[in-house]
Structure formats: structure tokens, C-alpha cells
Design brief:
Number of strands: 5
Number of helices: 2
Strand order of the largest sheet: 1-2-3-4-5
Structural class: alpha+beta
Order of helices and strands: HEEEEEH
Shape: globular
Helix content: 25-40%
Radius of gyration: 12 Å
Strand content: 25-35%
């Protein structure tokens, strides 16, 4: 998660935070700074980064691709 968070921090419009619930695996919360309603919780299954609904984003060995996909989804058109 730290590697993906670092990739996403390169964007000037996204912020990240690793959340570690007591009884669940950690996940990465990604929020658009100018539009807080544009947010996503990224999880892993041990092999892939996953969207909050469980669909794979990218393999864990491709954090740059995963970051680009998350940024694309969370960035309003025209920005």
C-alpha cells in the first residue's frame, strides 16, 4: 500500500491515507483534494490492487499503472 500511496502522492490533486481497521486488512483511502466526494478505498488480495467493489485494478507489481487508473477515475474531466 505504501508504494501505491507514494505513486498517488505525485499528483497535486490527490491525497492518500492508509487505514488499518482493528479486525480487517489495511486499505488505502484516496481522496481528490478539490472534490472530496471523489474518493476510493483501494484494497489488495495478495496479488492485485482492487477497487472497493472487488474488481482488480492492476497487479501488485504494477503500482504505477494502478495509480494512473485510480487518478483517472478520481480526476474530473478537463483537469
Amino acid at each position: 500500500m505504501e508504494i501505491l500511496a507514494e505513486e498517488l502522492r505525485r499528483s497535486d490533486c490527490l491525497t492518500t491515507r492508509i487505514i488499518t481497521p482493528c479486525d480487517q486488512p489495511p486499505f488505502l483511502r484516496v481522496v481528490h483534494l478539490d472534490a472530496g466526494q471523489l474518493a476510493e478505498d483501494v484494497r489488495t488480495d495478495g496479488a492485485n490492487y482492487l477497487w472497493s467493489w472487488g474488481e482488480p485494478i492492476a497487479p501488485l507489481n504494477a503500482p504505477d499503472f494502478a495509480a494512473a487508473e485510480v487518478a483517472r477515475v478520481l480526476t474530473p474531466q478537463g483537469r
